[in-house]
């Protein structure tokens, strides 16, 4: 994929514009999927690059802007890409949220059962005598009790949150502003209301990456 990446910090520190130059719309989609754009899978390389830029440069709201040559643009295809991107990020966020909920629920169940076993052990301790049966039950349940409690707490406070950065990324991108612009021309607004139009250019910087300027 021949792709140019230009990361720009927005006027406010809360918003960040991530600009990506693509030669064609195919750069956004998987090379191994030949289906029409509305059913086609997104490119893993493209998603990885966006994830890298957003995590390192976008603390607040994200504006994802695609730049390509004017003669390559198609409004209907751009609508499909925007819809596919939003659906992709929304679906992945839902999957991660469901998994986090499942792990957290499992942790609560384990912790609760562990505490129940603990209370049962306390009850056994109040019984008189030290029969072989009671001692055997205590020996078996005590390590099991602590294992379930600590494993449950680990699920609640650690395992259920390990995918939080990925969830935050997908939620941020699901709510990002996504737009397209022609790479050939850039228009700047003057203070007096006039405009200056200039042709954009690409600066080679190695590894098939180019910076839009």
Number-wise, the strands total 8
Strands of the biggest beta sheet: in what spatial order? 4-3-2-1-8-7
Cα end-to-end separation = 20 Å
Please give the oligomerization state of what you see. single chain
**Mean model confidence by pLDDT:** 78
- In terms of per-residue confidence, which ranges show pLDDT below 50 for 5 or more consecutive residues? 2-13, 199-213
Q: What does the overall shape look like?
A: rod-shaped
Category by helix and strand content: alpha/beta
Number of helices: 4
Strand content: 15-25%
How many structurally independent domains?
Answer: 2
Description of the molecule:
This protein has 213 residues and is α/β, with parallel strands linked by helices. It folds into two domains: 140 residues, no CATH class; 63 residues. 48% of the residues lie in helices and 22% in strands. It contains four helices and eight strands; from the N terminus they run E-E-H-E-H-H-H-E-E-E-E-E. The chain has a six-stranded mixed beta sheet with strand order 4-3-2-1-8-7, with helices on one face. Strands 5-6 form a two-stranded antiparallel sheet. Helix 2 packs antiparallel against helix 3 and helix 2 runs antiparallel to helix 4. It is rod-shaped, with a radius of gyration of 27 Å.
Q: What are the main properties of this structure?
A:
single chain, 213 residues, alpha/beta, 2 domains, 6-stranded mixed beta sheet, two-stranded antiparallel ribbon, 4 helices, 48% helix, rod-shaped, disordered N terminus, disordered C terminus
